[in-house]
Backbone:
């Protein structure tokens, strides 16, 4: 469902050019759970941003759902992101001023979903993450684990084909981290592809495949559970 | 989506209370100031609009240019002009005259007499020319009969205690005690404040006692009477269309005036232009208003809005980085740029709407005080004028969109990958925005301060230049000068001096004009006022040559003496004031080719005492003869003022014209003469105060944000050895530099504008360079005070705390 071929990305200042990604190629299948690992600064987050169409590669080809999006306009990228991708971040990134319900329904609002559809889907998503009883709360009234469950609800509420998770358990204790991993695996079980950046070997081991990055290059890919 | 916008807007306001307060209060204050200035401008442009067909009603206006003198404009017209216009003007539907008077009246026998303010004698056609709203009776026929009068509703209530006293008797009481009875035939609705007309009593000009009828019966045309001529023209008539008939009528007068080198002319002035026209010299006239100042005040209102808008833009843009993650999340959730633009614009519109509602509340609260301070009658009542909602809606949208677009543009352009990656690349708002805000705000502030200071100084100078200024309090009261009252007042304890002379001598009314013929046979048309022998002592006008009139001199010879002012002496051809002494001057009270004259001798020359600083002094002749209708001026001391007032009331009851004396202080009258300028100065001053508050709040918030943003940098600099003083200087300078630049820009622009504004005054102050320097220094000091507390606190903090700060 997602394929990237020979993508590269570099950042330049007036004096220095830093290569964040070099000649990276990989493919994500439908319903596949992929973990991306590597040391800090190896390009994991840059890769995730490019996979999520939040950033553009300098070169190479990206294909999402069979559509070449390498040269797509910003408007088309927004449309694809809206239709097919959900995000989970390490620091949750809930909008502080909005309630749990309002945070979860954000993606639906931008898709133009009607009020009743939004209500049904938000309730269903919050049910799935066990947060319906906190629907009217603000993020600051929730624990870190609860906030990340809300963030997962926000990612799955539109039934995306792909969820991109950037160290989703990085700010959580073990118990909450496990709960979040369970939720991601439930999403995979429903046919959603998940790409997760993580430093945790234990959590990476729960994925179908593990990709190792180093200095902006894919140095290994390991299929797990085979 | 709306709920989302509302929640987001309120959430952001709640998270940054300081910035929310600055934003809301700044916008609300600016909107309130803009609403007030808009109400003021609207009122200024609404003059005479209440009169149906006002666009085709004209008041005839005369012009006189003496040799070497600028042209003077006069609303007072010859008595014969109306009849001549009616006979010649094809496009004229009706002509009517008003004779402004101030008699003592009594609402029937046994009632207390009182001076009737707003009293006019009018031709019966006046209501065809000025179709005012009737409250009772038939205005078309109301003045057809001699001895009839139409009252304004407030005058009817005041005198008769009811709204429609049709048939009631109103007696005019002469100084000698004789009465002339008028019958009330109609009542008009009270005129709104937006008019040059002062109509409380409108008496028929047909009666034998009417000065209009007397003027019509005079064998020679009179030019000195307070007669105003109004014309109602056919639809579509422009002022220029009436010029031809008017020129035909004026031509004979022009030929006569040309003999003395004087140019006379006339034109038809649309009544809607009177408010913005030259100063109205008629007895009931109101001071003219400079339309450029009204437009300038409107622009000031817009500038204040721009200040608040700039403040909003700068603060929102400076804080934009704080919302980078939110933008990234929204984009990750599928928000397109257009949706984010709508989101952030929506938030601004909501904030602006709240500010507008607050502003409307502020306007409701302060309007009575503003009206009191400025002597205006502005109204802001949405229930009576729901149409006001439309401009308010337009202002809301304009300010909201203007303020919100740039921050929304910046926010919606953030790269989500930068925010999500934890970096700040792509999230930094342009630094120039903050500097632009400081420059716009402080340039506006400095410009307004220069304008307010200049207007205040010029007004102070004008009032200080008035005749009798700098002496003790001078009480004035209109009265008959040929009674024992002036002498009785002079004998009253606490009275320094008292003079009963023509109102025109004190510059309280137009000066009558005469024909003067010098020894060479040259003719002039100087002003001519009757004064008593105490006039010069009271006013402090000391002779430049010769002597002034002295008490005790009497007899025919004394009655043939004249004192002239310096301008008159020069124009009459004398090389110096001394050269005029003892020279003959023939005077005629009439105009015409060969009017009968009376010989006089010039005994003194005194300095010019211009009626106002607006126009230069004209030729003026003082004649010693206490007038029957004049002004009694009484100089006293501040300590004795109350006792003198009581003494005047007591003597007035025995010797006055009837009714209460109602004396007025000369200084008050002078202040009223410059009321329009004083109002303009106060509006500009008030605007400067609002600008000061907005600039202070904007700078405080921006510097607070900058300190917050640079806390870690401060820690690093402190760790590297920088002293707190060095940190303070670094941060202060960052803002002071644009403040100083802005002050220079604002002061320079305002200097140019105010120097031009001062040109309208014949006597004026200079734009003082030290005041400009003081304003520049003051704004810099003000900015330093606003920022110093928070900057000093940050600079004095422990470096280790700053280094831990995130």
Residues:
């Amino acid at each position: 469902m997602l394929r990237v071929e020979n993508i590269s990305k570099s950042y330049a200042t007036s004096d220095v050019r830093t290569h964040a990604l070099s000649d990276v190629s990989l493919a994500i299948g439908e319903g596949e759970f992929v973990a991306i690992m590597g040391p800090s600064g190896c390009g994991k987050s840059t890769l995730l941003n490019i996979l999520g169409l939040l950033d553009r590669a300098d070169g190479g080809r990206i294909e999402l759902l069979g559509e070449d999006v390498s040269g797509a306009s910003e408007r088309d990228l927004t449309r694809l992101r809206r239709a097919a991708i959900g995000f989970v971040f390490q620091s949750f990134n809930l909008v502080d001023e909005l309630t749990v319900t309002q945070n979860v329904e954000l993606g639906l609002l931008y898709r133009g979903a009607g009020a009743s559809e939004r209500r049904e889907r938000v309730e269903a998503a919050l049910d799935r993450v066990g947060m319906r009883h906190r629907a009217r709360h603000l993020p600051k009234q929730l624990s870190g684990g609860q906030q990340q469950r809300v963030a997962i609800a926000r990612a799955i509420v539109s039934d995306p084909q792909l969820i991109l998770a950037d160290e989703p358990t990085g700010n959580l204790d073990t118990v909450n981290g496990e709960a979040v991993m369970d939720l991601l695996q439930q999403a995979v079980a429903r046919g959603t592809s998940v790409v997760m950046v993580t430093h945790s070997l234990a959590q990476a081991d729960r994925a179908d495949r593990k990709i190792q990055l180093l200095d902006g290059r894919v140095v290994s890919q390991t299929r797990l559970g085979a | 989506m709306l709920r989302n916008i509302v929640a987001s807007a309120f959430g952001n306001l709640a998270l940054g209370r300081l910035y929310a307060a600055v934003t809301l209060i700044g916008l609300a204050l600016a909107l309130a100031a803009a609403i007030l200035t808009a109400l003021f401008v609207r009122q200024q442009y609404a003059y005479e609009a209440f009169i149906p067909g006002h666009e085709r009603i004209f008041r005839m206006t005369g012009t006189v240019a003496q040799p070497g003198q600028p042209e003077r404009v006069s609303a007072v017209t010859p008595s014969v002009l109306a009849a001549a216009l009616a006979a010649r003007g094809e496009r004229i539907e009706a002509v009517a005259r008003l004779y402004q008077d101030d008699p003592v009246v009594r609402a029937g026998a046994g009632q207390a007499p009182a001076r009737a303010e707003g009293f006019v004698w009018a031709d019966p056609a006046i209501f065809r020319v000025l179709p005012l709203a009737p409250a009772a009776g038939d205005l078309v026929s109301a003045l057809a009969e001699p001895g009839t009068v139409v009252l304004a509703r407030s005058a009817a209530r005041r005198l008769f205690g009811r709204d429609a006293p049709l048939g009631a008797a109103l007696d005019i009481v002469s100084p000698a005690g004789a009465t002339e009875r008028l019958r009330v035939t109609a009542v008009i609705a009270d005129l709104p404040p937006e008019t040059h007309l002062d109509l409380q009593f409108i008496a028929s000009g047909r009666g034998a006692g009417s000065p209009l009828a007397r003027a019509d019966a005079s064998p020679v045309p009179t030019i000195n009477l307070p007669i105003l001529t109004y014309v109602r023209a056919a639809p579509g008539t422009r002022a220029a269309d009436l010029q031809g008939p008017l020129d035909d009528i004026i031509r004979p007068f022009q030929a006569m005036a040309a003999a003395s080198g004087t140019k006379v002319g006339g034109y038809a002035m649309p009544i809607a232009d009177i408010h913005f026209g030259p100063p109205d010299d008629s007895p009931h006239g109101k001071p003219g208003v400079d339309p450029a100042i009204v437009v300038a005040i409107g622009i000031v209102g817009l500038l204040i809005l721009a200040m608040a808008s700039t403040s909003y833009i700068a603060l929102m843009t400076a804080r934009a980085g704080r919302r980078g993650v939110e933008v990234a999340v929204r984009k990750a959730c599928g928000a397109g740029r257009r949706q984010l633009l709508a989101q952030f614009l929506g938030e601004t519109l909501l904030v602006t709407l709240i500010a507008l509602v607050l502003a409307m509340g502020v306007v409701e609260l302060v309007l009575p005080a503003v009206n009191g301070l400025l002597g205006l009658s502005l109204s802001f009542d949405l229930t009576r004028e729901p149409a006001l909602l439309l401009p308010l809606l337009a202002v809301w949208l304009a300010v909201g969109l203007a303020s919100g677009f740039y921050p929304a543009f910046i926010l919606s352009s953030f790269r989500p990958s930068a925010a999500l990656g934890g970096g700040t690349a792509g999230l930094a708002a342009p630094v120039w925005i903050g500097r632009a805000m400081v420059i716009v705000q402080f340039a506006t502030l400095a410009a307004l301060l220069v304008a307010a200071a200049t207007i205040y100084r010029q007004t102070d100078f004008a009032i200080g230049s008035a005749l009798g200024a700098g002496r003790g309090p001078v009480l004035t009261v209109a009265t008959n000068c040929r009674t024992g009252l002036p002498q009785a007042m002079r004998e009253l304890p606490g009275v320094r001096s008292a003079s009963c002379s023509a109102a025109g001598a004190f510059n309280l009314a137009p000066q009558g004009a005469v024909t003067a013929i010098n020894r060479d046979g040259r003719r002039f048309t100087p002003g001519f006022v009757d004064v008593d022998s105490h006039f010069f002592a009271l006013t402090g006008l000391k002779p430049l040559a010769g002597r002034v009139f002295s008490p005790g001199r009497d007899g025919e010879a004394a009655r043939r003496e004249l004192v002239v002012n310096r301008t008159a002496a020069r124009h009459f051809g004398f090389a110096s004031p001394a050269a005029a002494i003892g020279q003959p001057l023939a005077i005629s009270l009439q105009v015409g080719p060969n009017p009968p004259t009376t010989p006089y001798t010039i005994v003194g020359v005194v300095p010019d005492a211009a009626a106002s600083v607006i126009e230069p002094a004209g030729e003026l002749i003082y004649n010693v003869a206490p007038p029957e209708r004049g002004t009694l001026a009484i100089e006293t001391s501040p300590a004795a003022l109350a006792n003198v007032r009581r003494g005047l009331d007591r003597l007035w009851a025995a010797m006055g014209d009837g009714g209460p004396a109602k004396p007025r202080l000369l200084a008050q009258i002078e202040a009223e003469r410059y009321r329009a300028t004083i109002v303009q100065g106060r509006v500009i001053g008030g605007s400067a105060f609002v600008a000061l508050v907005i600039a202070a709040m904007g700078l405080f918030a921006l510097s607070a944000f900058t300190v917050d943003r640079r806390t870690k940098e401060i820690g690093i600099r402190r760790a590297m050895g920088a002293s707190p003083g060095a940190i303070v200087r670094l941060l202060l300078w960052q803002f002071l530099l644009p403040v100083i630049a802005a002050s220079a820009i604002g002061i320079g622009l305002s200097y140019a504008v105010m120097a031009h504004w001062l040109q309208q005054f014949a006597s004026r102050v200079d734009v003082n360079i030290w005041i400009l320097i003081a304003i520049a220094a003051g704004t810099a000091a003000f900015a330093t005070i606003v920022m110093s507390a928070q900057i000093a606190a940050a600079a004095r903090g422990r470096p280790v705390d700053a280094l831990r700060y995130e």
User: Anything to note?
Assistant: Residues 174-189 of chain A form the longest helix (16 residues). The first strand of chain A starts at residue 2 and ends at 12. Chain A is about 35% helix and 30% strand.
